[in-house]
Design goal:
195 residues; alpha/beta; 7-stranded mixed β-sheet; globular
Length: 195
Amino acid sequence: MQAKHLKKATELAKDIIKKVVQKGDIVVDATVGNGNDTIFLCELVGKSGKVYGFDIQDEAIKSTKEKLESKNMLERTVLIKKGHENMKNFVMDEVSAIMFNLGYLPRFSHDITTKYETTIEGIKQGINILKVNGVMTIVVYPGHKEGFEEKIKLLEFLGKIDQKDLNVLKMEFINQINNPPFVLALEKKSNDICF
């Protein structure tokens, strides 16, 4: 059997983050969801690092907390039951990486989903707290109504940012049906950018 070399969007995002995050770093999981990215980030930062995790849903916070406890990683996390548009109220340090995984919580209501207004505000706040050379990944799911609108608004917003301040990369499959997820990767190049 031949190995798969082209990874799905969430795995591509992790590959990018792995290149930046080191033990002892402070990072953000902007959309905790089912906790997989939170666990991944906890493994990267180690016992001396810290992961801030945001989500508006009780189910997401509860299940992530249980996963973290089972892996003895709870002490290196701060779980916050608020949307990522509140990041600046909780994260006072510079961070080396931020992960967004947009859309809705799998196996729960599809009516509760990220919205472009709060996502863009969260991205702005994230850019402000990123270190120079820090990275943000955003996995976008345009296969549902809210997600499609979010895609359009995000690309419009990010496409206007000066390349001297921020590198913005888009990685997507172009021959898959049903508007597959894609990855946006942002690299901060300058402290001149501020929202």
